[in-house]
């Protein structure tokens, strides 16, 4: 497959989603929000009454996810799940679902299918290490846990959702720990990834940096 891929990996609330969608928009590329697939699997499990520890049943659900992306909206088996998909609680469930190797395997092919001309920007935890190891540019985004918690807090408050900063920080630490230390596809930079710490950068600064790297890619 000669279609170029740019991967953006990094921990929870590092700003990956925003950066990736902006890069996709400016490059005119397709976008893969791989976290949405794990989140949707978690919601499907909840609907079906499947335990988040039942690896085989979860993998089965993941393997036949009827997901449809339409502009900004996401549908699961025809139901609009855009709002529940973004809930913190759904992210927490997704993190538990994603530790199972069979689930990751079941979602592998689906992720590859997003690679279509003229190009793809893929965001997640293992885009550069596992799913698209031959990507033309791999970015690994980081920011301090304090910064990430602060951003998530402001985001929630601005949406009118009540939030507690210390609680968000401890949830983030827990999720970082689980994502970084799982045995399969832990959240780590690929050896050839460009590291970008955006703690003190605006979104525009990060976009400009990545577009610069993209132009110089091998
Ligand atoms: O990025 P997002 O917060 O939507 O991801 C939700 C969870 O899905 C993450 O905490 C992580 O455990 C899992 N995930 C993953 N691999 C990916 C994307 C997300 O394990 N490529």
From TrEMBL:
Compartment(s) of residence: Cytoplasm
Cytidylate kinase domain span: 7-208
Binding sites annotated in the UniProt record for ATP: 10-18
Protein family per UniProt: Belongs to the EPSP synthase family. Belongs to the cytidylate kinase family. Type 1 subfamily.
Stated role: Catalyzes the transfer of the enolpyruvyl moiety of phosphoenolpyruvate (PEP) to the 5-hydroxyl of shikimate-3-phosphate (S3P) to produce enolpyruvyl shikimate-3-phosphate and inorganic phosphate.
Subunit structure: Monomer.
The protein's name in its UniProt record: Multifunctional fusion protein
Origin species: Ideonella oryzae
């Amino acid at each position: 497959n000669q279609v170029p891929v740019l991967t953006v990996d990094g921990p929870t609330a590092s700003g990956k989603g925003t950066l990736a969608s902006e890069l996709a928009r400016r490059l005119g590329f397709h976008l893969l929000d791989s976290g949405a697939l794990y989140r949707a699997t978690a919601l499907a499990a909840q609907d079906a009454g499947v335990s988040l520890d039942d690896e085989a049943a979860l993998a089965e659900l993941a393997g036949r996810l009827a997901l449809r992306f339409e502009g900004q909206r996401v549908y699961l088996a025809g139901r609009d799940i855009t709002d529940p998909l973004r809930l913190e609680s759904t992210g927490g469930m997704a993190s538990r679902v994603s530790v199972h190797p069979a689930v990751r395997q079941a979602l592998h092919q689906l992720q590859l299918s997003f690679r279509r001309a003229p190009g793809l920007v893929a965001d997640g935890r293992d885009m550069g290490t596992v799913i698209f190891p031959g990507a033309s540019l791999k970015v690994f985004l980081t920011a301090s846990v304090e910064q990430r918690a602060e951003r998530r807090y402001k985001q929630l408050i601005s949406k009118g959702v009540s939030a507690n900063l210390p609680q968000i920080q401890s949830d983030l630490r827990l999720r970082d720990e689980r994502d970084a230390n799982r045995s399969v596809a832990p959240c780590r930079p690929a050896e050839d990834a460009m590291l970008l710490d955006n703690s003190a950068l605006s979104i525009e600064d990060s976009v400009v940096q990545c577009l610069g790297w993209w132009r110089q890619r091998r």
